[in-house]
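your task:
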Amino acid sequence: AAVTVAAGGTTTVDVALTKGGSIAGTVRRADTNAGVYRQLFIYNERVSPMPLRTIYTDFNTGSYVIPTLPAGSYYVYTGPTAFPDTAPFMDVVYPNGVCDVPCVLTQGTPITVTTGQTTQADFWLPIGGTIWGTVTAADTGLPLTTTNAFFVFVGLIGQSGGSSVSTDSNGHYTISGVRTGRYYVKVGLSPSGAIP
């Protein structure tokens, strides 16, 4: 609300805040039920380009609490805590829809938050496959060992988006947590790739 303040005057503005609700739960591996350290991205139901919040699960247990949210509906998905992501599982949008790159939030189910209440929302991350290899020189077959890393871009054939990682100092790369399917692999000096 707009407030008018006169020169030399004082205006009192009292604000009453309503108590929000929260979302709490645990992120677990689907194969062992063990807690997983992951990042959570929280979006309102309008799915704005940037998340409202990002939080991390507990390193040891995978538990989390997203406090003080206004009443409403929210999409939440899991994501990596570091890049490159070497975890063997696939990330999901609640409740357990596997995220493609980019993650399509509306393929998930919104979590409803009620004022003064905690909504339970648990995630189980399925184990994915791994693509790994070595970038070599075509003329010698030797690994490209350089201080300038190459980027390896992997995309699911027939879909836009994908994942990229950089090679290590010995030309090796690993992309973990990929879902079942046929992939193309592209190597370049940039972390982005285009579908061939």
Remarks:
- Residues 72 and 184 are 40 Å apart (CA to CA).
- The first strand starts at residue 21 and ends at 29.
- The chain has a mean pLDDT of 86.
- The chain is about 0% helix and 40% strand.
